[in-house]
Task: inverse folding
């Protein structure tokens, strides 16, 4: 059961190959662009709906292979994955289960796919399946599916158009077909390869999680996650929702910051670095108390992570005094709550600017007043400057004794 990759395997004749090797009936349920919870564009069924439609076949199956996760449409991939496995095992408790990891490399999505692969591998034992690696089927046994290289082309292939970034999604079906057949038939494995250790692995990699509002959306568009992955070596995820506060949902995913922490719990638990960009939308009853609540929620999940909070850099005249007061809270609470402050205000106006005394209505350098906010000044923009400060600030230490 899968998405467009399963359709490619159907075209490659995987059903016939499995029937030849295993002797029983084989069927592929595919729906291009579908996720676990969202229908695709062919049979127009979600994964859960396909389970219901194929219930009798699944009940008789001895082997179940899942190829899902590439289309990032689930509210929570972690929860949906657990729900799907529970549903399948209720129908076919004695079947052997396999989950194929994500092998796609589109630059703008590689970091999130790396995180999803980590979920797939981490949950294998818990949910009771074996992982078959499409990423290694394409790039070789030494490739690391937890660190997909953004934009890397499949060997001898050109970049695939239509995905707003370099890299590939579809193809290399014969190689994946072989990996699946070998896995489900318990084919003898070749001796393990001794993989070379690239120089970049002498540095400890770091996974980052950014939690914010519309400013985070601007950083997402500025490709902050790709830049962090390139520098720190680990996956990076940005959770954004325009107009939200710590306690009030925004206009995109319609989740408060506290709700996003719960949704992204598995990713946060694996993060080494967490960056918070909240406070511009003044909707908390008490910003100070909400800030404490959010930090407690984050630290309960990731107590060993390094934390950063970005100050408020907006200048709309009627709101500037309130933002200055909030910046004072952000700076005053840094040591108590255990985070380091990164200054958006200084990134915009220079190192001598005072974020505790925002100049009301002062336009960003070279910018005009932003309409729709009831006064002169700006909120959005100058993302490249903030991206640079964040990337320059975040770092991971070198290993004490790198391998020789």
Result:
């Amino acid at each position: 059961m899968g998405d467009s990759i399963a359709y490619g395997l159907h075209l490659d004749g995987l059903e016939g190959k499995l029937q030849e090797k295993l002797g029983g009936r084989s069927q592929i349920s595919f729906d291009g662009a579908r996720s676990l919870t969202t229908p695709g564009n062919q049979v127009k069924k979600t994964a859960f709906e396909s389970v219901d439609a194929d219930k009798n076949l699944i009940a008789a199956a001895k082997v179940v292979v899942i190829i899902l996760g590439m289309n990032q449409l689930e509210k929570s991939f972690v929860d949906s994955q657990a729900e799907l496995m529970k549903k399948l095992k209720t129908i076919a408790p004695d079947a052997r289960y396999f989950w194929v990891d994500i092998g796609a490399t589109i630059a703008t999505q590689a970091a999130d796919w790396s995180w999803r692969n980590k979920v797939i591998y981490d949950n294998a034992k818990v949910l009771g399946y074996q992982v078959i690696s499409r990423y290694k089927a394409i790039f070789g046994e030494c490739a690391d599916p937890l660190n997909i290289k953004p934009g890397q082309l499949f060997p001898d292939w050109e970049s695939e158009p239509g995905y707003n970034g370099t890299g590939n999604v579809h193809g290399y079906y014969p190689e994946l077909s072989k990996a699946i057949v070998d896995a489900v038939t318990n084919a003898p494995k070749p001796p393990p390869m001794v993989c070379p250790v690239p120089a970049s692995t002498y540095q400890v990699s770091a996974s980052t999680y950014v939690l914010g509002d519309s400013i985070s959306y601007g950083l997402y568009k500025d490709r902050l996650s790709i830049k962090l992955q390139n520098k720190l070596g680990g996956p990076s995820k940005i959770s954004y929702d325009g107009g939200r506060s710590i306690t009030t949902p925004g206009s995109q995913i319609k989740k408060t910051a506290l709700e996003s922490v719960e949704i992204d719990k598995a990713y946060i638990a694996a993060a080494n670095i967490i960056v918070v960009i909240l406070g511009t939308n003044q909707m908390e009853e008490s910003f100070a108390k909400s800030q404490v609540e959010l930090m407690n929620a984050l630290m309960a999940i990731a107590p060993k992570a390094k934390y950063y909070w970005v100050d408020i850099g907006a200048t709309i005249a009627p709101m500037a005094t309130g933002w200055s007061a909030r910046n004072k809270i952000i700076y005053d609470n840094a040591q108590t709550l255990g985070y380091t402050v990164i200054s958006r205000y200084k990134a915009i106006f220079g190192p001598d600017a005072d974020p505790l005394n925002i100049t009301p209505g002062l336009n960003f350098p070279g910018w005009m007043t932003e309409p729709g906010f009831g006064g002169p000044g700006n909120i959005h923009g100058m993302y490249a400057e903030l991206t640079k400060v964040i990337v320059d600030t975040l770092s991971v230490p070198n290993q004490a004794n790198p391998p020789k």
